Amino acid sequence: MSDETGTPATPASPTVGGAAQGAGPRPEPLRFFGTSWMNHDDGYAARRAGVAVGSLAAAAAACLVLGFAYQGLQIADSGSFVTVLVVAMFAICSALAFRNTWEGFGKRHDPRRQASLRGLLAIGFVGSLLAYFFRSLTEAPGERLHRTEHEKAREEFERRSSRRTGNPSKRKQQRKQ
After folding, report:
1. What distance in Å separates the CA atoms of residue 92 and residue 76, rounded to the nearest whole number?
2. pLDDT in tens, 149-173
3. Which residues are within 8 A (CB) of 96 and not within 5 positions of it... i.e. 6 or more apart?
């Protein structure tokens, strides 16, 4: 609050995307980005760099842990079949998780399908981390989908709000006079 006037220091209706927030659909916040993806402000570039570095570091750490698991299989002398099976499982699950995550940046997933894939995606978490890394090199992960949905909602709002208001019969009477 301002000391002299007793009014809030910030405007009552901040703008996002050139329009007042209360005057239409609001952008949906993205994980790690909030609504900074809308105008690429409020540290957007630094956040994108942080997501890229963080997801790549997490993927590298995960591969290190999986390397230790592989060494454990070798030490346990569990046999080549089990070793090949475990390596193939992580490779296939990571590829499927990468594809699923990458597709999720362009369209909304069916929640029931996602629930049924939860275990597979948990095993292939390295693929999801790599998908985040590669997408964050060009945009915030999910930005294109959210921007498209927001623009569509904005157009629908504009179309609904631009309809004429009032009683049309009164307008006809006013024209006749």
Report:
1. 23
2. 888 988 888 888 776 666 666 666 6
3. 117, 120, 121, 124, 127
